[in-house]
E3 ubiquitin-protein ligase
Amino acid sequence: MMAASLLRRDKRATAAHLKADLTRTDNSSGLRQLQELLDAVLNPEKPAADTDALDWCKCLIAGGEGFEEFCKTVHSYDNATLCGLVWTANFVAYRCRTCGISPCMSLCAECFNNGDHTSHDFNMFRSQAGGACDCGDSNVMRDSGFCRRHQLGTGENVPSIPRDLLLMSEMVLPRFILCIIQYLRDGYIEPDTSVERDLQKVLQQLEPQITFLEELTKMGGAMRTVLTKILTNQQTYKELSMGQEENLYAKKNYDMYLSALKNSGLVSVEEKTQGAAADIAVGAEGGAGAMVLL
């Protein structure tokens, strides 16, 4: 009932209200409301192409601020000494032979334009297979070619990021990533020609969500740190991917994943045997066996 009430309200106003509740000393009410809202918004039983869910996530992590303004604010706290911007095919980038130590070095437009490449031997190109910006990496290019943001030591001058700026991101993004994982698991069956097409269709349907994750990485080191902590936290992955007992969909989804993994050849016979023995030892939940496979 609470989630239904929140869904009917203005997204930005609701996000601002929840963020205010979550920054209080006693934030239990805000946590409960946010989790109930995310249960409704990030429901993997809904179509993957549901753009309303993505709009909700953008509003929530921005905490009531406009998403574009939020991106600019987070980027202003970028303390990364390397750019590392990743791009896909058809992205326009630059290569400076004067600054490059490696012939494969490449720069995104922002880093190139913020560096001094006057009278240098450079060219602009359209990437065929994708790449990443090397600005700030002294193993690939000379320090003199670094842009103003990624010159050595400049990260030390960036002010500390406010604690509450990424608060909503830390709470919303684990659920968002889990929802993507569940969509992908549902789209996976044993690889044959027809099913590969179905999986490709799932990937195409998830293109807006993947693009959103790319937008987050472009905000710089502060947001990339949040994403890295989420993606490398084993306990978080275990709790979220296996699902709670009352979440029957998450449990069924995870059981299907384990079944596919056991038959995929991605785990050794020994690991399969250990997992099966652990499954028998702990009963129907199979938690220990699941962790062997993980």
